[in-house]
Amino acid sequence: MTAALEVTLRTQGEIWFASREVGRLADTEPYFLNTALYYALGFASGRYVDRSFEPTYLDDTDAIAEELYVTPATPSDSPGAGLANRITSTYNTSTDDYATINYSAQEDPDAKQNLPTYGRRRVLGHGNELTCYLLGRGLSASELESRVPGYIRLGKKRGKARVETEPLGVSQGDGEFDLGHPIGAYDTALTPVGNLVTKRMRPTPLVMQAAYEGAYVELEASDPDDDDVVRLPADATFLETKR
After folding, report:
1. Domain coordinates of the chain in residue numbers?
2. How many Cβ atoms sit within 10 Å of the Cβ of residue 163?
3. What is the pTM (predicted TM-score) of this model?
């Protein structure tokens, strides 16, 4: 038995992280990778103090990887929703290093220099809407919904987002299918057979669209007037090919 939810994330303030850096511009692109969503939704937790500086995604999700799969989140395509508000600001400030060396006046190498830290930052503001999908294997839709919090925090400054869920009908099929929503590049063992478009992201790339051959799950909205159907690989598992 597989249950599925459509999860809508509505930003309630500024959410910032550096998706890409061009010169002095740090840009937040409107994609939340599932490497972040597993932690934000409370399905995984990392170490409070990290002295190894090595990713621990596999260890942190080992207990729930087979049971729960979360896709990355992308801007909603429903009318009037999606990406509505981005904020660009310029900052000019002193360094925010944790420790600053205190030189004597005679030995300070920067004594005659004005070295501010400045640049531009583009973030997601209030009112943006993004969508992801949650698959629960061996769970009912109500059990799955009970595990999803009403609000989450995302980004370097822990910006707030409201979480809304809608149960979806689930059926299974086998054959050639088109990917209906982006997934992580390492989240399925299936190899694309065509129509492949990827997006470079860190720490994992996104498969934005692709045609596959194999087993898939089909997600259908409960509203009979909604014709949208999303197909995902049946084996979709967080970092499947890395385990």
Report:
1. 2-89+121-242
2. 16
3. 0.85
